[in-house]
Amino acid sequence: MLIKIYPENPNPKAIEQVVEVLKKGGLIIYPTDTIYGLGCDITNQKAIEKICRIRGIKPEKANFSFICSDLSHISDYIKPIDTTIFRVLKKALPGPFTFIFNANNNVPKLLSSNKKTVGIRVPDNDIAREIVRVLGNPILSTSIKDEDELLEYSTDPELIYEKYQEQVELVIDGGYGDNEPSTVIDCTSGDFEIIREGKGNLEDYI
Fold first, then answer.
1. 120, 74 contact by CB (below 8 A)
2. Domain boundaries, the chain
3. b or e along 65-80 (b: 16 or more beta carbons within 10 Å of the residue's beta carbon)?
């Protein structure tokens, strides 16, 4: 199923429809402030395993991130952080960043690898945040990759739908996506270590 949702003012009925799919263990492809993501409810083990199969990776080796709706939501899944890091998060989020933290026991066991870390995103995209808010818990997320060497990420939701319609229950057309991923920052040591340069520039917030 392909549904159109406008990012400026997401239709509550359409959001409910997406949430129903997630609650039943379905997979969705949805827009963020960077590239389109493939996601599921983090509490649904079968859905997580399905995403791992699509991506060809083992759950314990996966570097998935959680899409959260706001800062208070993040604290449910990570070990306490110091005020300096919190202050930067407050300024930088919502935004095109993935912050890696030490995970607490609320992170689903299937995803608790030996690393005990979790990547957290609060995208600057009302559709993604509204889905999570209505669902009541984060969605597990991974990027939609493209096999084309020139196009690392697909940006056209209709083409994404054509490619993935057999593998996912629902694709959201939220307009063209970006083809630059989020900037990934490791905060597990209490400092900011940039793992991958992407769309966000952390210097603007430190």
1. yes
2. 2-196
3. bbbbbeeebbbebbee
Q: What are the CA-CA distances from residue 26 to residues 22, 42, 58, 179, 206 (Å)?
A: 5, 11, 19, 25, 39
- How far apart (Å, rounded) are the C-alpha atoms in residues 140 and 200? 21
Contact 21, 162 (CB under 8 A): no
Q: Which residue has the tokens 């490791």?
A: 186
Strands 65-67 and 117-121, how do they pair?
parallel
Question: 175 near 56, Cβ under 8 Å?
Answer: no
pLDDT of residue 107: 80
Give the number of residues written for the chain.
Answer: 206
Tokens 């079968």 sit on residue: 46
Tell me the mean pLDDT per 10 residues along the chain, length 206: 94 97 97 94 91 83 86 86 92 96 81 74 96 94 70 80 94 92 93 92 89
Question: Which architecture characterizes domain 2-196 according to CATH?
Answer: Alpha-Beta Complex (3.90)
Distance CA(45)–CA(196), nearest Å, equals 28
